[in-house]
Write a structure and sequence with these properties.
The structure is a homohexamer. Chain A is of the alpha/beta class. Helix content of chain A is about 50%, strand content about 15%. In chain A, helix 1 (about 10-25) links the parallel strand 1 (about 1-5) and strand 2. The N and C termini of chain A lie far apart (about 40 Å). The model of chain A is unreliable at about 230-235 (pLDDT under 50).
Chain lengths: ~240, ~240, ~240, ~240, ~240, ~240
Amino acid sequence: MKIVVINPNSSKEMTESIRESLERVRRPETVLEVCCGEGAPSAIESATDMAMSVPPLLEKVRWAEAEGYDAAIIACFSDPGLEPAREAANILVLGIEQTTLAVATMLGHTYSILTPLSTRIPSKEQDVRRFRLDPACASVRALDLSVAQTEADPGLTKRRVKDVSRLAIEQDGAEVIILGCAGMVGYADELERELGIVVLDPTTVTFKLAEAMTETGVRHSKRALYASPRSRGGEAA
Amino acid sequence: MKIVVINPNSSKEMTESIRESLERVRRPETVLEVCCGEGAPSAIESATDMAMSVPPLLEKVRWAEAEGYDAAIIACFSDPGLEPAREAANILVLGIEQTTLAVATMLGHTYSILTPLSTRIPSKEQDVRRFRLDPACASVRALDLSVAQTEADPGLTKRRVKDVSRLAIEQDGAEVIILGCAGMVGYADELERELGIVVLDPTTVTFKLAEAMTETGVRHSKRALYASPRSRGGEAA
Amino acid sequence: MKIVVINPNSSKEMTESIRESLERVRRPETVLEVCCGEGAPSAIESATDMAMSVPPLLEKVRWAEAEGYDAAIIACFSDPGLEPAREAANILVLGIEQTTLAVATMLGHTYSILTPLSTRIPSKEQDVRRFRLDPACASVRALDLSVAQTEADPGLTKRRVKDVSRLAIEQDGAEVIILGCAGMVGYADELERELGIVVLDPTTVTFKLAEAMTETGVRHSKRALYASPRSRGGEAA
Amino acid sequence: MKIVVINPNSSKEMTESIRESLERVRRPETVLEVCCGEGAPSAIESATDMAMSVPPLLEKVRWAEAEGYDAAIIACFSDPGLEPAREAANILVLGIEQTTLAVATMLGHTYSILTPLSTRIPSKEQDVRRFRLDPACASVRALDLSVAQTEADPGLTKRRVKDVSRLAIEQDGAEVIILGCAGMVGYADELERELGIVVLDPTTVTFKLAEAMTETGVRHSKRALYASPRSRGGEAA
Amino acid sequence: MKIVVINPNSSKEMTESIRESLERVRRPETVLEVCCGEGAPSAIESATDMAMSVPPLLEKVRWAEAEGYDAAIIACFSDPGLEPAREAANILVLGIEQTTLAVATMLGHTYSILTPLSTRIPSKEQDVRRFRLDPACASVRALDLSVAQTEADPGLTKRRVKDVSRLAIEQDGAEVIILGCAGMVGYADELERELGIVVLDPTTVTFKLAEAMTETGVRHSKRALYASPRSRGGEAA
Amino acid sequence: MKIVVINPNSSKEMTESIRESLERVRRPETVLEVCCGEGAPSAIESATDMAMSVPPLLEKVRWAEAEGYDAAIIACFSDPGLEPAREAANILVLGIEQTTLAVATMLGHTYSILTPLSTRIPSKEQDVRRFRLDPACASVRALDLSVAQTEADPGLTKRRVKDVSRLAIEQDGAEVIILGCAGMVGYADELERELGIVVLDPTTVTFKLAEAMTETGVRHSKRALYASPRSRGGEAA
């Protein structure tokens, strides 16, 4: 089984960090490749960043299918390019946001998403509706830290993650917390123990699901929403 | 990794059939146990059957946790006893209906559920709302066959599954078909090829997810909806 | 007119308390029987309690129909066994939660439910969706008292009911308050006067509706969701 | 107990017909008065008719409260003037549409409304949302007959009611049928027997509920949506 | 192009105030007429006021069409009589509430409505659903001032508008603020600058849209919801 | 007033066609510029086409703001790049899909969208939710013609538009029809007359709204969803 994880931004550090965390959870027989979009923005913090990250991402997806990978994962918690990537590929393509939201619905009454900046809350709320998983969403809450800050100050980040999770639990009734940014991920286990709640790290969750799906040949539907552009033009011919 | 699959009815044939199909997909290192509820109804075709199946099911769940199983799966496409089973256990408990509906949301625009009898359509529609996965549900459609008939006449069942799937695709816009009864399961691959669509077999899908979740320690939340009855009483003490 | 009220737990005290309160409101010509589930849990505070209460409840429902009762009421504010009881019976079966929620929608803009423990809030929220009465629900709020505490300390209970009702009105905009536990019921009138709002006692509301429906022969539909198990099997024959 | 039923249009025939049907179901001790809006339109078949019927209706409501009636019912299946009538009165005011929709949610999975003309379907769909009872609405279907035709040709009306009910059951999954016009009402029992479904006559259903509510002092909330205009002005003083 | 703006209450001061504000924004070639309902309530602060304002309003709408106006605007932020006015007229009729809510959905993630009295919040929430624009509504918030107070004390009104807008932005996530009362309107520009947000004055927004629609002949649909009462009767003939 | 209309694909023919149609409706004093994305796909019929059209589109938006345009319109009925374009610009940016959907909610009970190919129906349904205008959407229906075919065979296109509109009206209850593709636009007036319904041409509707909004300085909110990337980074600094 060969799975490629595509970091849609161009940061080598984040790409390496993803590789390290997945090396710890991959099955021995899984071939793991982690790469990033060439020429993509260095971080994805706006709709503009998302838009600019898609053309390089699509190249990587096409390359992965040509190279015989079984599945491709888009490893940014806003799933940039998920729709065109699924159009482009016949192999399984998963986005870490959509996958984690759907998994969260299986594990508790409602879920909350933690995101770095409060200005991005509306964008997450849009995604929750886009994936049709809104009835189980308790809230989207922000740390009020930039991505850079979450990386630069782990102590502050950890305190904020804990405080904001507590608000999500107590005020919004969340039973599952989703860590919506790479910089938050290291504290999941500690958080679970302290708050008595389920905490999901999107990249890990999605990677393990990709392994499970690949083993039994599950793929995304190519019927209409993700139909290959070629076949679509042909339909009406 | 040890996973128990509990068939909530008392049919030994169905229990064996589940075991056979899962033996084909389990990983070599997974210990698989399939059992059924002792004293449970012989089939689950009504709310009464569901209610009567829960006490024996809960015994099996408690036994599984005591025996050191890592996860328990409720293998009936109406998830009887999911809430009390999750209260009872600290190990992961998954229901095949909830899990498959959530997986379906990851794979296509909307999903349709196939169920044997039209009188059970409202019950499935209730479940779709219970699991908060209603926005992605295109329809619930019935074969108009009893469970016994789906087992007795495979040829008829196969034709009906195909015809009803086609209606779900063409009239309801479904992109993922969920086979909501054991008797339908054998035709998934053929259906996928002929209709160009994703077809999910709930037991297999859920079993592979249970393996993936168990590997990384993912469990259901014990915060409130599934809190152990004991701890709940204590909260206010 | 003969109406049976079934307390799904086995508490004789609660059964008597229900009888007393209904004796005060029943019409002179109504024959009232109040009974409880034999072998049922002594209180219903979890999904497990609910599940274990259903088999004895169903026996009572079948007995009531055989004895010529016109209607049966399930007198626990989580409506355990409502679906199988309606399958089992051709006489009218009402649950006090569903009935009271529906009545609340007639009387004000939105309603709030008061429940003893905060861990049971998600369960009430599930019920609100299960009964398809979610758009009019302002909130579910907890007293943070166990059922036992609400019975043991009336003064504390009364203060909490008042304080939490005030929050529901002022912060959630509730115009109708539903007292979701027997221990809260005695304060309805005082609450109405002090807060200038409608307060509903589910058992009384449901009993009076059962009288009104019985007089004109209104029953639940036996079409599909509550079809008798027998006729269902026959449909496809 | 004294209950007034107000026919918002000025038709003496319809007023008498309402009186006759309610005389058959009222309890012996209930004082029943049926009246109609003076100067109101002769039938209510448009938003304009509704608007013009409200001023005379409000006069009747005020008169009823002054005369010591316990409850007032607005007997037109579009509930004209429900909000201002509830503002005007401290006695219970019920509209037959809102009440019947709420009762329908207690009796089956979903309900369908039958209305005379297809041009009025959107108006009924608006009402279903206005009363926040939309999740349980299967459909609104029209007979394609004017109110005058339903009165002039009972045979045709009966056939249409049966045919359209059958469509609502088979195509929309309705389990409860609501007869949304006086001209349809006579066939409820026959329809119930033939189609094996619950059929509700709004005027009867609402009248019996008004009796039940009045006995226990249940009224609509005067908190905000129906606050008396006077007290509202005072609030901010 | 000739547009009439109808103030549904009988206040000459408010009518003049509307005229002045629209004179500043109308195009030079637009003929503007502003009038008010004769015999209507002097202010519209309740459902009763709304109901009583409709008959005089409908007279004005019919007069406007007869006089050759191209469009009529109902200038009260609860859109009294919108449905019957659209039935009555073949010319474009717009209500300032519906129009402004729809425009708000184009300009930001979600919108909040400011209303004078908290007792009217439920009524605004009903309108949001009536216009099917509820998914984008962040909140309805009240100034806790009567209409008279907003006119009498501009300084207090301004402070409250600012404070409540800030709450809507920070606690509800609003990106567009709608000033739901004439007395609030003067502070829109200042508010926009200080809070960095979009603030809409309903009368101005609607008037400019009426100009734009009239130029290209856009009108409301006369298909069913707003069909002329006459044609409706004829349909079934 | 200077308005730029950006055709996100690179087709010069379509760009000219847009210019011609808008020249007929623009006000004399409005400066109109129509341009297209350089290096963009020649047509936009897939998510991939959409993704590839965004980078050139963003260049045009930035250029327009630098050149002093007051508003920019994205003239493709899937609003590619709407979010990043609004981030990029402080001038008003409108997409023709979002704008037309919102206008449709003002004009009739519900609206239907016509789209060329049935494989694109899910994508339109996603957009309806993305813009939070789903409660008023009756249906999305396809002509089953490619964009190329709608341009090549006007007679066939016209018949299909008429037939599919009729289905939307009669089966889905639509009161407003939205022509979701440039090739359909010429038949709007004829369709309105024949079907007695409102038919909207998105480009015209949006252009006239842009004129009206620009006159009074209405812009999109820059608070969070469309905040400039620069200010967003600064927020947490």
